[in-house]
TrEMBL record:
Segments traversing the membrane: 7-26
Xref: InterPro entries: Beta-barrel_RND-rel, BSH_RND-rel, HH_RND-rel
Source species of the chain: Thermoanaerobacterium aotearoense SCUT27
Annotated ranges, domain RND related barrel-sandwich hybrid: 53-248
GO cellular component, one term: efflux pump complex
Protein name: Membrane fusion protein
Stretches assigned to the RND related alpha-helical hairpin domain: 91-186
Amino acid sequence: MKRILNIIIAIVVILYIGKVAVNTISGKDKTIPLKPGNLSESIDTYGYIVVDEMVINSPINGEVNMLVKNGTRVPKGKEIAEVVSPNFDKSKLNELNSVDEKIQSIKDDKDTNPYAKDIESINAQIDELNKEYQQAKDKSVLNSLRKKIDDLTSKKEQIIKNGPSSIRNLDDLYSQKKQLESIISNGLYKIYSPEAGVVSDYFDGYEKMFNVNKLFNITSNDINAIQKEPTEIKGEVKQSEPILKLIDNYDWYVLSVLDKSQSQKLKEGNNIKVEIDNDDSQLLDGHIMKIYSISDNLFGVVIKMDDAYNDFYKKRKVKVNITVNNYEGFIVPNTAIVKVDGKYGVYKLNNGIPAFEEVDVKAQNSESAVVESTDGNLKMYDEILVYGKDYLKK
């Protein structure tokens, strides 16, 4: 009898060792140390860039030349482009440059410099008075302006008479300069920035639909109308056609259209992360300004961007990934999570023996989950079974 009992015990031990060996070989008893991690819940969709921009149209028919690079921020009053008429005599520019050099040479002469400054100042005053004279209608005002102009002219003549001979040349050069500038202005129009901003000559024709004044009223028809991306304006242009725009680089927005279930994951005022997918993907900070209904099941989400985007001045429709939530905790493989008596948990090894530990599953994707211990018993580097579900079947 004792011999039979020993045989039975030996068989049980062999079977158990065999089972453990099979489990080990198959990886069923594989463990991993608990480590902190995070999972993000995000929405992949398209975004439409909306900027605060000022469109500048061509004053004449001609060829446009950009004088600054696209994407450059310029101050107010900066010369940024020129439009050249087809009939423009470019030789007049060379003549003007030659006259300017001669004027500068006289002004640089120490002996003539004081006289040159006086004449330059008087000429500027006369020009301003002439402008006022052309606009004035009252007879007494006209007479007063005429007297001031005559007095300044007499003063200038006295300076020229008493000064060196080069001063007489200077006044002639100023007259030539004025005539050449008048001729050139009829064929060459210089464009100056009316405000500070980022210069762009990229247009798509949707500037009126997608602007900050209509930001909360963009419709599904507006969205569906977008069929192309902005392109550069180059070469010949017609009068009143757009040639460039100034963009406020501090205020720009991304408008995304989401279905109802997606929009419910967002809340006005929340800070979010937006990744714009292009050749150089950028993860940017922003916050949700407005969520509004576009149709029965579509909602517009207006995101005010806090960070700069390199290509914002030349893009309209971009692929975006909007981070809705970011969950932190212990990250474990999905295979480690089991359900016992209606509670979710993992198996932790205590002195080599698996023990069930309840967890709160905060987020999950196809491979992993972020969990949190419900009672605080799980600690960093605790060993847990990778295949908890398989352990249940033992």
